[in-house]
Write a structure and sequence with these properties.
By secondary structure, this protein is an alpha+beta fold. The protein is built from three helices and four strands. The protein starts with a helix and ends in a 7-residue tail after the last helix.
Length: 71
Amino acid sequence: MNGILESLLMYEAKPYDIHGREIVRSNSKYYVVDPGLRQLLLPDYQEDYGHIIENIVYLELKRRYLNVYVG
C-alpha cells in the first residue's frame, strides 16, 4: 500500500475529530487519482455512483487545499 501511495496513484485521507480538533487513530480512507484506475483494478465491481462522486469531490478538495481529512 505504501508503494501505491508514494507513486501518487492513491491518496490517503486520515479521519479528523471536529470536536476534539485532532487526527483520530482509526482507519483511513483511500481515493484513487483516476476513477478509471479503480475499474481497472476491480473489473467485476459494479458501478457505485456514490463512491465515484465521493472520489471526485475528494480530488477537487485535494486540488484546492493542502490537507484534506475525513470525518
